[in-house]
């Protein structure tokens, strides 16, 4: 399994708009995506009001690529969120079974 950590920093003043997108669009989309084993959405905190994240566990690399394409190391965002996002970061790890 693959762990995908996706972090977003919004433009100043766009936190509320992005939070609405995050809760109403991004979370439901990820919850309904084939190949995802689990998601852990992280909303902004008072000390970091413009930072959001997703920790996703994917079944395998093929499932991840089926969703984002061959360039899975590139942090893709939806067109409707592009004007809200100042920076984005992506990391991948192999899940360690315990």
Automatic annotation (TrEMBL):
InterPro entries tied to this protein: ABM_dom, Dimeric_a/b-barrel
Domain of life assignment: Bacteria
Residue intervals of the ABM domain: 1-71
SUPFAM superfamilies xref list: Dimeric alpha+beta barrel
Keyword set, alphabetical order: Monooxygenase, Oxidoreductase
GO molecular function: monooxygenase activity
Name of the protein: Antibiotic biosynthesis monooxygenase
Species whose genome carries this gene: Aliiroseovarius salicola
